[in-house]
Amino acid sequence: MARIRLDGVSKRFGTTPVVQEVNLDIADGEFLVLLGPSGCGKSTLLRMIAGLESLSAGRILLDDRDITATAPRQRDVAMVFQSYALYPHLTVAKNIGFPLRARGRSRQQIREKVTEVATTLGLDEHLDRRPGALSGGQRQRVALARAMVRDPGAFLMDEPLSNLDAALRSATRTELIDLHHRLRSTFLYVTHDQVEAMTMATRIALLNNGRIEQVGTPTELYDTPRSTFVAAFLGAPPMNLFDATVIDRAGELHVVADGVDAPLGLSAGSATGPQKVTAGIRPERIRLNGTDAQLRGVVTASENLGSEEILHVTVGGTVIRVRAPRPVPAQVGDAAALGVGPADIQLFDSGTGRRLVWHVPHEHGASPRDASLSVA
Fold first, then answer.
1. What is the pLDDT of residue 266?
2. What band does 272 get if pLDDT is binned at 50, 70 and 90?
């Protein structure tokens, strides 16, 4: 069991910043996923925690012990690599027991621990085989077993499922979730796959260009993204984002754009003039052919996903994607009237991309009419 804390961690390769002033507190027993696009610094950050990369600045603490300069083998963490890094000439049993042999454990201790871990991961019937005779999923479990045999406080996993096919990846995700529940150890997991992050993590840290954009539960990141980057990264398809203006229409605030006129459910109050924003709506929150249409356009494409369908509706100069159960009563070329509720419209600063929220003063006599829009 281990709590990991990153305090101002940075990494440069030459003059190029790769990780920039990352502050992160990973709780004991948590399953935290480092998520982000390729090149955002997530694997480098994991390797620094493992001791495989040095820091340019900051420090790393494990259970309040500074391990910034501690050798990798003296850290209470175990790394599971994307490539598995198994020894092809050794049996499964010897691959799993290798860390214990390196620490001088007796043959009896090694045999007992290898059997225990192999049974936990369903590898007990494969102990005499070599990695080349195993499937990709079985090799992944051997790599996990080799990490588990040390009884580490934390498991560090660098895209461990990326070499598996879709069906096996889904099954292994379930196995990892179950393993985390049983071990109650700290899991720190790197991936660029949002499905892995959303289904496995207790919390997600989403990185962008070496910096953390947002940390929170999967639900928090999906429902209340702090920036357009977070909104656009999560979701399949991602949030619809388009330039708009907040205006006063008959005493009520509306979001308007070409083909869009949607009330926000707020009194205009003392709002001073139109405000440029970026508006966001999740595809599944849009109603098709509603009688109270706030968006009007033309269906330009359709994607059949089996149980659902994604319609591409051109509204003004923007393509709005609508996710709805099949069969969808619309075809390419049809006019589309789309409805959306005030609570499903999210606003972001058009310059910085940061989330905007309404603030109501707490002074005596304050009302929603005194609300103002500002960066969260």
1. 84
2. low
